[in-house]
Design brief:
65% helix, mainly alpha, flat
């Protein structure tokens, strides 16, 4: 893209266009077979058309695979809220502020770690 020297508002050459031209020049004489790539499929290949049944089956399979992980955030948040809440109640009842909240947060974190480890162990099977 040549720019006239007198045009103060001319765009500078685009770096991406320059890189694309350099890449095409470098690989113009190469054939895909030279690099060990397979030839593209013929025009006769057509993927099967999606039908409502195949889409539904694929969606169901994906949801079954993702199921154990969909509620993980709610479980983590809920367990932390439960244990910290129990710590707040213990502080009010025993008058040991802030140690009940600290203990509740620590127990909540231990519970979260065990939850994540259990999910990871099940996922590795």
């Amino acid at each position: 893209m040549a720019t006239p020297p007198n045009d103060p508002y001319a765009d500078k050459p685009d770096r991406w266009e320059r890189d694309d031209r350099a890449w095409k020049a470098k690989w113009a004489d190469k054939e895909p077979e030279d690099e060990g790539y397979a030839a593209p499929p013929s025009d006769a290949y057509r993927p099967a058309a999606a039908t409502p049944g195949t889409v539904h089956d694929a969606y169901g399979e994906g949801m079954r695979g993702a199921g154990p992980y969909l509620g993980l955030g709610a479980q983590i948040g809920g367990s932390m809220a439960l244990f910290v809440g129990l710590g707040v109640l213990a502080d009010r009842w025993l008058g040991t502020s802030p140690w009940g909240v600290v203990a509740g947060a620590a127990l909540g974190m231990v519970g979260v770690v065990f939850l994540v480890l259990r999910i990871a162990r099940e996922a590795s099977k």
